[in-house]
Amino acid sequence: MLNRNLLAIFISIILSFFFIALSFYPNYWINFFGFLSVPPQIPAFSDFEAHIRFLKCKESGLALYESCFEITKGHSIYNSHPSLWIKIFKLLNLKNLFNFNLLIFFLLIFYFSC
Questions:
Q1: C-alpha dihedral (71, 77, 80, 85), degrees to nearest 10
Q2: Beta-carbon count within 10 A of 96 CB
Q3: What phi, psi does 64 have (nearest 5°)?
Q4: pTM
Q5: In a 10 Å sphere around its CB, with 0-12 CB exposed, 13-18 middle and 19+ buried, how is residue 94 labelled?
Q6: Contact partners, residue 85, CB within 8 Å, separation at least 6
Q7: Which positions ≥6 away from 104 have C-beta within 8 Å?
Q8: What pLDDT, on the 0 to 100 scale, is given for residue 73?
Q9: CB 65 within 8 Å of CB 77
Q10: Are 42 and 22 spatial neighbours (Cβ–Cβ below 8 Å)?
């Protein structure tokens, strides 16, 4: 049983490394997900990265629910956007690219392990 769990964790780590490495190359990202017939999202993990843009809006003094289109790259901000995410991203300093990718890496490991 222990060997099976270790194997699952090892495979999860390998897959996580693969997706993190793939995310640094947009053309490969597009080709990989296109091959799987899944619409690719550019930049990679942009749904998660949107919280960083929302944090930048707040730090620049702009109200989140007003016009913040320049910082958010044209993405609209909905009233249902929880400010808790902004606080978490600020606390973990996820504007730092290394911290952001490290969190993505651990989230992927957790996802693949489950």
A1: -20
A2: 11
A3: -60, -35
A4: 0.78
A5: buried
A6: 51, 54
A7: 20, 23, 45, 48
A8: 54
A9: yes
A10: no
Return the amino acid letter for 10. Answer: F
Closest CA to 47 of 111, 104, 113: 104
Q: Can you tell me which residue has the tokens 């090892």?
A: 10
Q: In the prediction, which pLDDT does 84 show?
A: 83
CB 64 within 8 A of CB 84: no
Question: What pLDDT, on the 0 to 100 scale, is given for residue 106?
Answer: 95
* Size (the chain), residues: 114
70, amino acid identity: E
What does DSSP assign to residue 15?
A: H
The domain ranges of the chain are 2-113
The whole-angstrom separation of Cα 109 and Cα 13 is 6
Q: How far is CA 76 from the centre of its chain?
A: 18
pLDDT along the chain (114 residues), means of 10: 87 96 94 92 84 78 59 51 80 91 95 92
